[in-house]
Amino acid sequence: MRRNGVADSFADALILSKKPVKLVKPLIVIVDKGSLVLKQDITSAIADGAPATLCTLALGNGHFFIDGTGSSRIIHAYMASLSPSAGRMLRPPASASAPKHFQISGGLALTEIGLYENPNSDPLNHLSTTMSNFTQGGEIQYNPRFNPSSPAMADSRVFVIENSSGKISIEGAGT
């Protein structure tokens, strides 16, 4: 559980890892308050055309911020953020170097990913939209291993809980 007063802003967001995350065991990260920054790729070995190791990133009330360097971010995870007042995938504010393209192999469940015909109709128009942030587009490929009746789901229970007023970083095994 995060501290009281955490907002969904980039300034309050948790950084998942400052190094590439190479999945070797299933992982679930649930953030109950606030956003999550993905600065590095999250990858798994591929088997039968899909990531072999499952990773779920779930936000109770926040946005996913895709940051770091490079032209594209590769994410082998199911990402979910369903708060009606948050739930977008964005680039950090004023970040020219953040990727403008994404490749998700897992799944994506957000409150909003589209464009508004009239930007003033967007209830969060101060943030922009997922589509306007990723000008080079993206790819989303569902990983069939996320089927809830799969035996792999029972093996993927790892929780990371933050109970202090600072940021937490989950370090990957990459270089």
DSSP, total strands = 14
Helix fraction, binned, reads: under 10%
Overall average pLDDT = 82
Q: Low-confidence spans: pLDDT under 50, at least 5 residues?
A: none
What attributes does this structure have?
mainly beta, six-stranded parallel beta sheet, 175 residues, four-stranded parallel beta sheet
Give me a quick take on this structure.
This protein has 175 residues and is mainly β. Helix content is 2%, strand content 30%.
How would you characterize the overall build of this protein?
The structure is a single chain. With 175 residues, this protein is mainly beta. It has one domain (10-155). 2% of the residues lie in helices and 30% in strands. The strands form four sheets. Strands 3, 8, 10, 11, 13 and 14 form a six-stranded parallel sheet that branches. Strands 1-4-9-12 form a four-stranded parallel sheet, with no helix packed on it. It is globular. It starts with 13 loop residues before the first strand and ends in a 33-residue tail after the last strand.
Protein topology:
Blueprint: E1 14-15, E2 21-23, E3 27-31, E4 36-38, E5 42-44, E6 46-47, E7 50-51, E8 55-59, E9 64-66, E10 72-75, E11 78-81, E12 89-90, E13 101-110, H1 130-133, E14 138-142
Parallel strand pairs: 1-4, 2-5, 3-8, 4-9, 8-11, 9-12, 10-13, 11-13, 13-14
Antiparallel strand pairs: 6-7
